[in-house]
Amino acid sequence: MNSRVLSIVAVVFVAVVLGAALVRHRAPVEYAGEEFLMDTLVSIKAYGSDREAVKKGVNAAFAEMRRIAALADGFPKQGSAAAEASDVCRVNAAAGGEPVRVQDDTMAILILAKKYYEMTHGAFDVTVGPVMELWGFGGKDPRVPEPERLRAALALVGSQDLVLDRQRGTAFLRRAGMRLDLGAVAKGYATERALRVLQRHGIGQALIDAGGNIRVLGRSPRGGAWNIGIKNPRKDGGVVAVLKLEDTSAVTSGDYYRYFEVAGKRYHHILDPRTGYPASGSTAVTVVTKDAGIADILSTACFVLPPDRALDLAGSMVGVDLVLIGSDGRLRHSPSLQDRIDLKGDERP
């Protein structure tokens, strides 16, 4: 083979190698979607080499979230098709009567709820429905309930009276008038299920934002950690810290999401199920852990608990980190977050 032919072969070889390298390092294609689900705007951004494949995965993830939302919906119109599709509605309607067969996902949510009810000594309780209903946070006219009515509603709260039969797949509220409210767990559970759908579609990089419930898959498309801001609970647009996350979740509970004021006092929707009143020890709590469903539960439980006890609880659990802003404005976080958090010193609550 003469030198001219060798040169041509070499050029072709180099071109093929460079072309393959460019394909390997080509920036991933983004597909983003939004839907209003579970009383919040949910956005999903996913990345891959084929836009149509990524789009298909995102659409399937939203379908999964809609399915979970339908099972957990506690507020559809009575007698409607949505009420019949809701496991929560059917269990509530049968309270004090008989067990109700529920879907596997509903059972999984309720099993988690019972576990963390016991672990937190009642700081997390999905049977808080009668009290939530009395405050009216699910409607357009929230109000401070009368003490007598609040005491009566509190008497119907207690997950010790939520009976689960895993073998038969049934759930039962022992006392008439009891009501499930899965608002502090269903969104996180649905987020985690949506992420698994993305994975089954071959997607390795994604961010799901479900109104304060953040779940990231893999690394960011720029190759490093995802930067997730923690909102200043007392300043619109302010960020008190930035978390650097990979393949994990960060879920925030705050007193600024849903609240009203009477005579200058703020009443928010995160109720202590043991007292029936809004929890007062913190203004915002962010839980960082792998599973978004567990993070959702723990963000509520740790908001309800006194700050010191919340930090102790997080410290006792493997793979759970906490960022907590107390009602005194003090920000504290788990020591293990030290290398993954950037505090903004000029953004004090």
From TrEMBL:
Signal peptide: none
GO terms assigned for molecular function: transferase activity
E.C. code: 2.7.1.180
Catalytic reaction(s) noted: L-threonyl-[protein] + FAD = FMN-L-threonyl-[protein] + AMP + H(+)
Stored Pfam families: ApbE
Keywords: FAD, Flavoprotein, Magnesium, Metal-binding, Transferase
Cofactor dependency: Mg(2+)
Superkingdom of the source species: Bacteria
Enzyme kind, highest EC tier: transferase
Family: Belongs to the ApbE family.
Protein name: FAD:protein FMN transferase
Organism: Geomonas propionica
